[in-house]
Design a protein that fits this description.
Blueprint: H1 8-31, H2 33-40, H3 45-65, H4 73-90, H5 95-98, H6 104-109, H7 128-153, H8 157-164, H9 175-185, H10 193-217, H11 232-260, H12 262-285, H13 289-302, H14 307-319, H15 323-343, H16 348-360, H17 364-384, H18 389-401, H19 405-418, H20 423-434
Helix pairs in contact: 1-2, 1-11, 2-12, 3-4, 3-10, 3-11, 7-8, 7-9, 9-10, 10-11, 12-13, 13-14, 14-15, 14-16, 15-16, 16-17, 16-18, 17-18, 18-19, 19-20
Length: 439
């Protein structure tokens, strides 16, 4: 590495790390969906990698603040504080580690019911404010990480003045991290790629701080390799590689430590189960039915008698032209539905489940009879218990099945108003607004 001309050694390492990170995520999403879930879901390997890299950026930034006379001390002071805040937010200020319950205010206002601020406006589903923030952030990342370094490289006077005023412009060799991170922040694919974006951006911030610290210690100008002392390029390259290696080891260690604790492992297993269900639907929406079927099969291994999983599994079997297997699965689902109704003949949810199963069996008349029963039972329950959020939610589910989306959303909103801290009701309002099938 040190035999390369000054700026090329760190650039070579940065490009190699960028390609490696992207390749790993690409292989996982295409071939190993469960691995991709582990790499992008909360409190697992990918998120702890982000936390570790933000922590490195924070520590190195504060090291730059301690260098008297450094022209960007104020910038790195702000960056260090910002990274401290991000690390705190990522672990919900200790909640993700110690599993304490969220205060009622956060349960009501936070889109994920967690003790942090960023999920007040961002979360598991889209909002207008979230979209504005994402696109604004994406534009800022491209402007800061690509356009500004290019303008500085070509000698644009304003870029140099801004740099002299205290804005630390990133080295140009980090542009792939900023630009792909910006693209993934928008979440076009809806495949948790925003988590990949945070891995890229957190590394870019750590690398930015390391670049300035190493060059400053060797008495050079950040964007003038000709002024760098001997071996600066090699030291930078080693620093980038070591920083990523330390972050990766820290991420693996933190994840394994949490998985070795029974209570943390239970919470992680619950998140993984939810991830399997969500990604099965996402692969199905992308018409990758083979992977969707594989994931629905995993979901069934975890919950063999889950009728929603069985129906989804049957759908993908049909799409894979495995009709006989699909019919066998649906008949099994029907038996479970009937058993549920025998045990609870006045259960609206049992009737709703039968509606879905009979529809898949193309028995529409029978499905309609059960839908009428679900609506009748739910309306009677609301009449008898007008202050029950679950009664309004049950009616909303039946209305949703009947295609009355506006009325369903109104029922879900009443349930949410009566129990504002309940995630299920909030998700239902969003789901019916987006026209997403609840399964």
């Amino acid at each position: 590495m040190t035999s390369l001309p000054a700026p090329r050694a760190p650039a070579a390492v940065a490009v190699a790390l960028f390609v490696a990170i992207c390749a790993v995520y690409l292989v996982l999403v295409l071939k190993f969906p469960l691995g991709y879930i582990y790499a992008t879901y909360e409190n697992l390997y990918g998120e702890w990698l982000q936390v570790a890299q933000f922590a490195i950026a924070m520590v190195v930034s504060f090291a730059l603040v301690r260098r008297a006379g450094h022209p960007h001390r104020a910038f790195f002071g702000v960056l260090g504080l910002a990274c401290f805040y991000v690390v705190g937010e990522e672990i919900s200020w200790g909640q993700q580690v110690f599993d304490w319950d969220s205060p009622d205010w956060f349960k009501e206002k936070n889109l994920q019911g967690e003790t942090n601020l960023h999920n007040m406006v961002t979360g598991p589903y889209s909002t207008a404010l979230k979209d504005v923030i994402e696109y604004t952030l994406a534009g800022g990342l491209i402007g800061y990480g690509l356009i500004a370094p290019v303008l500085l490289r070509v000698g644009w006077g304003l870029a140099h003045r801004v740099e002299r005023l205290g804005l630390a412009i990133p080295p140009l060799y980090l542009w792939p991290f900023w630009t792909l991170g910006a693209a993934f922040e928008v979440g076009y694919f809806s495949f948790n790629e925003a988590e990949v974006a945070e891995v890229l951006i957190s590394f870019a911030l750590a690398a930015l701080a390391l670049h300035h610290l190493v060059v400053a210690r060797r008495g050079g100008e950040p964007h003038a390799p000709a002024t760098w002392g001997a071996g600066t390029g090699g030291a930078l390259a080693r620093g980038l590689a070591v920083a990523f290696a330390v972050a990766l080891v820290g991420a693996v260690g933190a994840t394994q430590a949490m998985l070795s604790n029974p209570e943390s492992a239970r919470r992680a297993d619950k998140r993984i189960g939810a991830g399997i269900e969500k990604f099965a639907e996402r692969y199905a929406n992308r018409k990758n039915y083979a992977v969707a079927n594989e994931l629905f099969g995993m979901a069934l291994e975890r919950e063999p008698e889950n009728r929603a999983h069985l129906r989804r599994y049957a759908r993908t079997l049909r799409l894979l032209d495995r009709d006989d297997e699909a019919l066998e699965v649906l008949n099994r689902t029907l038996e479970l539905d009937k058993a549920k109704l025998r045990g609870k003949p006045k259960s609206a949810s049992a009737h709703r489940s039968l509606v879905r199963t009979y529809r898949l069996l193309d028995e529409d008349d029978t499905a309609q009879r059960h839908l009428d029963a679900a609506l009748r039972i739910s309306r009677q329950r609301v009449k008898e218990h007008p202050r029950s959020p679950n009664a309004h939610y049950s009616l909303g589910r039946a209305l949703e099945l009947s295609g009355e989306k506006k009325e369903a959303k109104a029922s879900f909103k009443i349930a949410q108003k009566l129990a504002p801290g309940t995630k299920k009701f909030r998700r239902a309002v969003h789901r019916v607004g987006k026209g997403v099938d609840s399964g």
